[in-house]
Amino acid sequence: MVRALLLADTHWPRRAKDLPPAVWDEVDRCDVVVHAGDWVDVGLLDALERRAARLVACWGNNDGPALRARLPEVARATLDGVRLAVVHETGAAAGRERRAEAAYGPDTDVLVFGHSHIPWDTTTPGGLRLLNPGSPTDRRRQPYATFMTAAVGAGVPGHAAVTVHRLPPRC
């Protein structure tokens, strides 16, 4: 079993000077940190590379040349037998499951994505699990800033036991 921290849309340092302490605590506890893009600055990538046991990450639409040079558009990894893909954008919510299954389903068990800042957890008819952790730093129109943790393993129904963490409002 692999413990994973799922992040997206950190928009650092535009939306926050640092990640919330609860997120850094999870970085220290987890076996892998998964980031689905919109870092904005390479400083956070550098910090997570230094501190995380393992990092699986992609770039997002707000990430410039420096981040795109270091990160793929789609990141892939296998975690305890579970085939994971990480991408920033999946398009509109309507039709997302169909599009994701067509694009990733045959070779992927879990797809982590970002962009909307809205937590999302669904499974397609073909069994592809779609997860969006929201944003820990920019809640937009959501009631809370969020991130996810997941226990990932081939023996877990749905391949991941997922928890959405709500962060307290910033002062």
UniProtKB/TrEMBL annotation:
<protein>
    <recommendedName>
        <fullName>Phosphoesterase</fullName>
        <ecNumber>3.1.4.-</ecNumber>
    </recommendedName>
</protein>
<comment type="similarity">
    <text>Belongs to the metallophosphoesterase superfamily. YfcE family.</text>
</comment>
<dbReference type="InterPro" id="IPR000979">
    <property type="entry name" value="Phosphodiesterase_MJ0936/Vps29"/>
</dbReference>
<dbReference type="GO" id="GO:0016787">
    <property type="term" value="F:hydrolase activity"/>
</dbReference>
<dbReference type="Pfam" id="PF12850">
    <property type="entry name" value="Metallophos_2"/>
</dbReference>
<dbReference type="InterPro" id="IPR024654">
    <property type="entry name" value="Calcineurin-like_PHP_lpxH"/>
</dbReference>
<dbReference type="InterPro" id="IPR029052">
    <property type="entry name" value="Metallo-depent_PP-like"/>
</dbReference>
<dbReference type="GO" id="GO:0046872">
    <property type="term" value="F:metal ion binding"/>
</dbReference>
<feature type="domain" description="Calcineurin-like phosphoesterase">
    <location>
        <begin position="5"/>
        <end position="152"/>
    </location>
</feature>
<keyword id="KW-0479">Metal-binding</keyword>
